[in-house]
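Let us work through a complete example step by step.
Step 1: write down the sequence.
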Amino acid sequence: MFRLIRHAYRKMILKLMFDRYVLNNSLIEADIENTITVRGCKVDPDTLKKKFYHLMLYYPDFAFIFFWRIKKNRHRWRKLFTGNVQCKIFRSTKIDGGMMCYHPFATVINAKSIGKNFQFRNSLTIGNKNNDNKRIPTIGSNVTVGANAVIIGEITIGDNVIIGAGSVVVKDIPSNSVVAGNPAKVIKSI
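Step 2: predict the structure and record it as tokens.
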């Protein structure tokens, strides 16, 4: 019985949040559409509102991104949707729409900017070099990063790049590349 009441309460809150934060927000709309597409979710009817509800109710990693986007990391309803997701994205980091994560636990992201359709997995570290926040990465669009990767320093990652799990990226990566290793090296052009 408690679960039904909790579910009904969450859906009521989702309506309020959809109307207030999602409508006319192109970044959140892009996050929703990309996450639905990549995860292969089937939502009926196929409306933005139903997609948002589905992702917020069943994907706490999406809910984490949503609360980050609306700048409400301490929102009173956050725990109802995110559970215990432990991830930090610096407010100064600019990220285009379409961001998606899988199990973002133990992730820290501190970059100048990240392009559209950024995907990442757990234990990602993107940050500065020598504790200097002026020396942080710039990451292009359509970049996918595997688990336990480290990207540090004042470097540029191009567009359409795949960074393998466990890679340590400390130098620029050209567009249309697959990189892996420690230190990361281009292993394939795409």
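Step 3: interpret the result. The longest strand covers residues 185-189.
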